[in-house]
Write a structure and sequence with these properties.
This protein is an alpha+beta fold and 416 residues long. It is built from eight helices and 22 strands. It binds zinc ion.
C-alpha cells in the first residue's frame, strides 16, 4: 500500500503543479475515508485542477480533464450537427506539436485557422479510434500565440523493393545503386537536373528517379527515408526529392536472381528484371506469324499499316501466353528468338508450313500443342498494358517439373 501511495503521488505530480507533502496528505485522507485509490487520485487531481501542468500531446490520455497544452492547427473543418432539435456548428480537425498529432472537436467557434498556434486551457479528451481526441468546450480557454512550433514528422514505413507499388508514399527502403545517369528535365521555366537509374536489394530491382543531386554513384548502398512510388512505363518507380533523407551505408547487398511469386508482381503492377515461373494456361489468339510494317515496325493487318498505309510487311514470330503460378497470373510476350528456342523450330520452317497448308492458323495450333500446360520460367520487364500485367520476356525456358518435389515445395510455402 505504501508503495502504491508513493507512486500515486508521483503520477499526480506529473499532471499538476503542487507541493508533494500536501498532495500526499490529501491522498491519505481520502483513503482513510475508504475511497479506493484510483478515485482518490482523481479527487486530488480535481482539487488542484487549477494548477494543471502544460503537457505535450503525446502525454494526453483518453478521458482526461483540465488539459493544458500548446498545439498547432493542422487542419480544421466546419460542420453542422443537430443537438436536441437545434442546429449547431462544430469544428473538427487535427492539431499537433513536436510529439504527436491528435484529432480535436471544438464545440464553439474559437475562430481557429490552419497554421494557428494556440495555448489551450481546460480542454478534455475522449476516445476516437482508440486514440485520445481533444474536446474544446464552452469552458475551454484558447489563446493564439505569436510563435511557430515544430510538428512531429510521421515515421516512414519500411519496405522491401519487391513490395513497392504505385501510390505508396513516405517509404523507407535500402538498396544498392546498380546504375545511374543524369538527365535534364524542364520544370516550368527551369531546367532541372535529375538522376535516374536502377536500385536493387535482396528482393528486387526497381527504377528510381532522384529529383535532387544526392551525389550518388554506382555501387553505393543507401537508405532512403521519405520516398514515394509512381507508375512509370508500366512498372513501379521509386522517387525521392529534397524532402527525403538519404544515408549512405557501409554494407554490401547480395544481388541474386530470385523467383518472385506472381501475386507480388500483380500487386506491384509490374517490375523490371523479374524472374518467375508458372504454368502456361492459355496461348493468346494473336500468337504465331504476324506481319510488321517495314517503316515503323508496327504490326499490320491485311497489308495495311495504320500510319504508313499499304506496305509490304515483314514476317515475325511472336507468342503471347497467360502464365499462372497459383498465386497470380500475368501475360508474357515471347519474341521471335525466344519463341524459336522454345518451339525448337525457326520462323522459316513455320512459314513453309503455313504456305503448304495455305493457312497461318496451323502455326498457332502447333504453338498450342507444344506450350499449353507446360511450366515456363521467365525473366523480363513489364510493359505498359491496360488490363493484365504484361511482361516482355528477355529469356524463357520450359522447365521439366519433378511433380512430387513441386507439391512438397508448394505445401511448404503455404505453411509459411
Ligand atoms: Zn508503319
Amino acid at each position: 500500500m505504501e508503495n502504491n501511495i508513493e507512486s500515486a503521488v508521483d503520477e499526480i505530480l506529473e499532471i499538476i503543479e503542487a507541493n508533494r507533502e500536501e498532495v500526499e496528505k490529501d491522498l491519505r485522507k481520502f483513503i482513510e475515508y475508504g475511497v479506493p485509490l484510483e478515485h482518490a487520485k482523481k479527487a486530488v487531481i480535481n482539487k488542484y485542477s487549477g494548477s494543471a501542468k502544460e503537457k505535450k500531446l503525446k502525454d494526453v490520455n483518453i478521458n482526461e480533464k483540465n488539459i493544458i497544452t500548446v498545439a498547432k492547427i493542422i487542419f480544421i473543418d466546419e460542420r453542422e450537427i443537430e443537438v436536441r432539435g437545434e442546429k449547431r456548428k462544430i469544428y473538427r480537425g487535427w492539431l499537433g506539436d513536436e510529439t504527436a498529432r491528435l484529432q480535436f472537436t471544438a464545440w464553439k467557434d474559437f475562430d481557429l485557422k490552419e497554421g494557428d498556434v494556440i495555448k489551450i486551457k481546460n480542454a478534455s479528451s475522449s476516445e476516437w479510434m482508440e486514440q485520445p481526441r481533444l474536446n474544446l468546450s464552452e469552458r475551454t480557454e484558447v489563446e493564439k500565440l505569436d510563435y511557430d512550433i515544430e510538428l512531429i514528422k510521421r515515421f516512414p514505413e519500411r519496405y522491401n523493393l519487391v513490395d513497392l507499388r504505385p501510390g505508396l508514399s513516405n517509404v523507407e527502403v535500402r538498396g544498392k545503386i546498380m546504375s545511374i545517369e543524369e538527365r535534364e528535365v524542364s520544370v516550368g521555366d527551369d531546367i532541372k537536373k535529375v538522376f535516374s537509374g536502377i536500385i536493387a536489394d535482396e528482393t528486387a530491382k526497381v527504377r528510381f528517379t532522384a529529383w535532387k543531386d544526392f551525389d550518388l554513384k554506382e555501387g553505393d548502398v543507401i537508405k532512403i527515408r521519405g520516398g514515394y512510388v509512381r507508375k512509370w512505363r508500366g512498372a513501379p518507380q521509386l522517387n525521392f526529392d529534397e524532402n527525403a533523407e538519404l544515408e549512405k551505408l557501409d554494407e554490401e547487398i547480395l544481388i541474386e536472381e530470385k523467383i518472385v511469386p506472381l501475386y507480388k508482381i500483380v500487386q506491384a503492377q509490374g517490375g523490371i528484371d523479374l524472374c518467375f515461373q508458372g504454368v502456361i494456361l492459355e496461348v493468346r489468339k494473336d500468337s504465331g506469324i504476324i506481319f510488321r510494317c517495314p517503316k515503323c515496325n508496327k504490326r499490320i493487318k491485311e497489308g495495311i499499316c495504320d500510319d504508313d498505309g499499304e506496305v509490304d510487311g515483314n514476317p515475325d514470330l511472336r507468342i503471347k501466353v497467360l502464365v499462372d503460378d497459383g498465386t497470380g497470373a500475368v501475360d508474357v510476350i515471347l519474341n521471335r528468338e525466344i519463341s524459336e528456342k522454345l518451339l525448337n523450330k525457326n520462323m522459316d520452317e513455320f512459314l513453309n508450313l503455313a504456305k503448304e497448308a495455305m493457312d497461318y492458323g496451323i502455326v498457332y495450333d502447333e504453338i498450342v500443342n507444344s506450350l499449353l500446360t507446360k511450366t515456363i520460367k521467365v525473366r523480363g520487364d513489364s510493359i505498359q498494358s491496360d488490363l493484365i500485367v504484361t511482361i516482355s520476356a528477355k529469356d524463357a525456358e520450359i522447365i521439366k517439373i519433378d511433380e512430387k518435389k513441386e507439391a512438397e515445395e508448394l505445401l511448404m510455402q503455404l505453411e509459411g
